[in-house]
Amino acid sequence: MNIAVVDSSVGRLSVAEEGGKITRLLWDVDPVGEPTPVLVEAQAQLRAYFEGKLTKFDLPTMVGGSDFQRAVCDAMSDIPFGETLTYGEIAKLTGNSAQAVGNACGANPIPIIIPCHRVMGAGGKLVGFSGAGGVETKVQLLRLEGAAGLLI
After folding, report:
1. What is residue 111's predicted lDDT score, i.e. its pLDDT?
2. Which residue of 1, 68, 138, 144 is surrounded by the most CB atoms within 10 Å?
3. Which residues form the active site (predicted)?
4. What is the CA 9 to chain-centroid distance, rounded?
5. pLDDT value at position 12?
6. Known catalytic residue: 116?
7. pLDDT at position 128, please?
8. Which of 63, 116, 120, 142 is catalytic?
């Protein structure tokens, strides 16, 4: 596994790559190995995202876990920049309960790139985030995307 680091407005992000695919996004983990082409591209895309120049990541990812976990990650990846869906809406798309979707969102190994911050509770309620800083980081990411109209 190789890990590259990117400084951002939500902290020092560490992106892990295995076999040419992004497998994790963590906070404040030191670099490991060599910067592979995928990691260099991930760094560039993350910088562009935080500079407001990128609205959709185009990186190869690999999410472990069940087919359901991958389906929820796919559904989150389809949420457009600056928009949100609820756990219930994703539950309808995946054929499971909102609680199961919430658990899958919480297990998202690649936050930001797979935008679990765009998933809200019922009625647009602000709940959980799988990355460091929890809801505070989620608020920062939604504000960055201009989705803050729902957040005062």
Report:
1. 96
2. 138
3. 116 (nucleophile)
4. 15
5. 97
6. yes
7. 81
8. 116
User: pTM score, two decimals?
Assistant: 0.93
- Ranges under pLDDT 70 in the chain: 148-152
Token pair listed for 121: 């509770």
Hey, what domains does the chain have and what are their CATH numbers? 2-50 (no CATH), 67-150 (1.10.10.10)
Q: Which two tokens mark 142? A: 């939604």
Measuring CA to CA, how many Å separate 79 from each of 11, 116, 151?
Answer: 23, 9, 18
Supply the pLDDT for residue 102: 93
Average pLDDT, the chain: 93
8 Å CB contact between 3 and 15: yes
Pairing of strands 11-18, 2-8: antiparallel
**Helix, strand, coil tally for the chain in percent (to 5):** 40, 20, 40
